[in-house]
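Below is the data:
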Amino acid sequence: MQYTFKDHFKTIAPVLSTALLGPVHIQAVEDLCSLFPFDAAAVFGFETRLGNPEATCDFFLQIRKDREGPGILAGESEFARLSPVLLNNPFWHKISRLFAEWFDVSSLLNERLELFWLEFDCLESSFNPIPNIFFKITRINEPRNAQWESMLEVLNEIYRILFGIKFPAGLGESLKRCIEALPPFANIYQVGFMIPRKTEAVRLILTGFREHSIFEYLKDIRWPGEIDYIHKMVDRYAVKFDHTAFNLHIGETVLPLFGTEMYLRDMSQPLWDPRWNEIFDFLGAENLILPAKRKGLGSYSSKKTVSHLFPVNYISGINHLKMVYKPGLSLECKGYFGTMINPQKEVAFKQTESET
């Protein structure tokens, strides 16, 4: 039997509420996952608009350096290959070259990058096969100007592979200003390219801000949105969680979009942490989460072990919520939930050895 990533999704599909993902889009996820080999990613998950009744989600894969995924996506695996649908796509050739560079232990990208995320946008009844690409840059304890120079080397290399050019100068000037203005205790968690959305803007995800230091930072980088509104939003919602991350969109200027990602510690889940019910009650009263989506998020939490060629442990649950500010639009709440895949190949190998 030829396993694909679809087998992972089908394992957790029974606990996936149709309020989160309807039948048409469940089939669309299966179709997308069937394009990837079984070991392509370490985590998969979903993003849903909690106040929107449409049962649709964007879908993401997390690619870890210490697993088989980079080699598979690079085309370096002897046993697992991407579907011809992807192999025949010109832009996927570039994505494969990106992962080939990351897979090379002597490369700049291998040295500087820790993780990749591929996020696939949901269309009417399918998914765009060209993903948004996010990556985590290894943290370095150097002055901000040195961090920026190091980041620019990474950005130039990724742009060279994907687009055949250096990172755009105007975009670089804006991003440099945002990096060099960071307070000493803040960190860069993710950088994202929203490739299929036809925008040259970069998404920057920042962590480590203390108390209200984010608002001074927004002033320092001349963020053009309503800082007083963001202050009220953070004070009203983020205070209910244990830690936060902040999303900025950087083009040739800093754009007036803002996201606040909110986490409970230790991947806490509604099954055992009563704070989730308090949070959901509050968001429901604010019309930011629908009852059916609240129920669907709560029921997604699960643990199970399934034998494929070897036992695989699946741990599913809520990752975090995000408040999204866009000028002129109502505040929106999104939910992020997913599944960690932990293959037990060593266990299976030892059992086979003992049997022989």
Observations:
- The longest strand covers residues 311-325.
- DSSP finds 13 helices and eleven strands in the chain.
- The first helix runs from residue 6 to 12.
- The chain has a mean pLDDT of 93.
